[in-house]
Amino acid sequence: MRESLTYETGLREECGVFGMFDLEGGDVARDMYYGLSALQHRGQESCGIAVCDTNGPKGVVNCYKGLGLVNEVFHEETLKRLGGNLGVGHVRYSTTGSSTIENTQPLVLKYFKGTLCLAHNGNLVNAFEMRRQLEETGAIFQTTMDSEVIAFHIARERLAAPTAEEAIKRTAAKTRGAYALIISSPRKLIGVRDPFGLRPLCLGKKGNVWIMASESCAITSVGGEFIRDIEPGEIVTITRDGVFSDKSLQQEKRAHCVFEYIYFARLDSHIDDVSVYEARLRGGAALAHSFPADADLVAGVPDSGLTAAMGYAKASGIPYEIIFHKNSYVGRTFIKPTQEERENSVRIKLNILEPAVRGKRIVLVDDSIVRGTTMKNLIRMLKKAGAKEIHVRVSSPPFLFPCYFGTDVPSNKQLIASSHSVEEICREIGADSLGYMPVEDLEEMAGGLPLCTACFTGNYPMDVPDGEIKDALE
């Protein structure tokens, strides 16, 4: 379960991908375990590792997958059985496809030309058409994921393509949407990033071991050195002969996902040359300039609101304080089928430090408001504990439109901002004032990167299915 309370009320992470190739032939499964653990914040529903031995027979893959966290699925004996020096791993939160064992990744595909292992982070907007093309020619799917659509198209293209890289490039050329892919063929590790750069992917090295990962924190967590980001529209291939780059899919237009900097990515990651930690500090400072408040202290909602709160405090000169005790031992499978139980879960995860809030005017910073349930409950708890005023500041603009690229933003009917003005939301959650990050401040927060802000503005970087757009606007 995601650390931030926003997970419980609508927003969820994407997925994380990780790959390793030990050129000296050493087993990589144990390091992959730690790499995936470092990406656990990107998905907690399932995980998997697929490895092969590049010195052994071609096409032999050892794969283990399961539902749950990395440390729940993998154990010492499991890792010992995963012998191989080339591996692909995945942690998943479902965006396309339900949470079943069949939909766990990596996908392992055995076909006419050999074996393909694939891990995918993102979402395709033309997955239905691509899937239908395959089904009309006899393909039988085992999952409901768009990742399997990508894998099947690569396998089909490989029948005529001279190399796996060429098959991947041909597939990517007809794929629309967000994707970071790590793929292994029997003797190669291949990374692919969508031309808009919507999903992150980076390259690292540890001695003679090459590493690819969603975030730089996963590379450093296994003792590796971050080399660089894989560029949008770039295909990077690692073989025993070296590292090769193909940038023929690149385009001028970029649209990096703003949520990596607001809350997806880990604080110690750098994505596209931007420190996530510094981006969140800048976001909090921008909020302080746009929406100042007369207050005694600034506090953040754990965990993803804390750094922005620090930025707000520094820019405003108002002291930063800790006002919540977070229970770190609440199980991730805590079930909340009813609204009452969802509200109770807030009190179980967070308790108020009453001496810190009694009689105080508080600026409360969080990364987002989706349905408003969590913030409403927190404000109620704070005022019950004696807080005098609560001024809510949000380090993202109001959510108005759904995301089609892998961020689990609910339909607009579930987004409080789609049917309420800022003033109405303020009254609904019981705040004394409410300020959202202005859209125009987002690019500066993210270090000047061109961003995808479609869930705030409705301006999608590419065409999405007309029916979905129509539903979003209604």
TrEMBL record:
Q: Which organism is it from?
A: Clostridium fessum
An individual GO BP term: purine nucleobase biosynthetic process
Reactions performed catalytically: 5-phospho-beta-D-ribosylamine + L-glutamate + diphosphate = 5-phospho-alpha-D-ribose 1-diphosphate + L-glutamine + H2O
- State the EC number(s): 2.4.2.14
Cofactor notes: Binds 1 Mg(2+) ion per subunit.
Q: Which residues form the active site?
A: 15 (nucleophile)
Listed name of the protein: Amidophosphoribosyltransferase
Molecular functions per Gene Ontology: 4 iron, 4 sulfur cluster binding; amidophosphoribosyltransferase activity; magnesium ion binding
